[in-house]
Design a protein that fits this description.
Blueprint lengths: L1 E2 L4 H10 L1 H4 L5 E2 L1 H14 L8 E2 L7 H10 L6 E4 L9 H13 L4 E2 L2 H9 L14 H7 L4
Length: about 140
């Protein structure tokens, strides 16, 4: 989970509303977002052993860490509440995340409505469901030079 500063409060509210479902998942978030989500867990479910694993702050490499986890199929969905009203200093990292989420065919929400659709899908958390990795990835890996 990732949120730009202008959307962190909204992500925390969404997380709190959906915490019962989310605490069944392995959760990762960039720097400050992880800290804030762990504060929500501590306040709302103090006996929970589940914690959000914090990565680096987005502009300091956290976006790239998540991108690497997508590329190595360690992340099943990306919830990224973007603030599209301001230009981010790490806009290229944000674009790279969008590209990787699309390339590796994972669900990717940039707003609350889409995040709601993902988390309420019967496929969410279904161990039998695996996203289909596009054949273009394997073709690219094995291309002739």
């Amino acid at each position: 989970m990732v949120a730009h500063d202008g959307r962190k409060k909204e992500l925390c509210e969404w997380f709190k509303f959906n915490m019962e479902s989310l605490l069944k998942c392995t959760l990762y978030a960039t720097g400050t977002t992880a800290r804030l989500l762990n504060e929500v867990i501590a306040a709302e479910a103090p006996k929970s052993a589940v914690k959000v694993t914090g990565l680096l702050s987005g502009p300091l490499g956290g976006d790239q860490q998540i991108g690497a986890m997508i590329a190595t199929q360690q992340i099943d969905a990306l919830i990224f509440f973007c603030d599209n009203l301001i230009t981010q200093g790490h806009q290229q990292d944000v674009g790279a995340l969008t590209r990787l989420a699309s390339l590796y065919n994972i669900p990717f929400a940039t707003n609350r409505t889409t995040a709601d659709m993902i988390i309420t899908s019967p496929l969410f958390g279904n161990p039998g469901y695996k996203p289909i990795i596009p054949g273009t990835i394997e073709k690219y890996k094995n291309r002739k030079l």
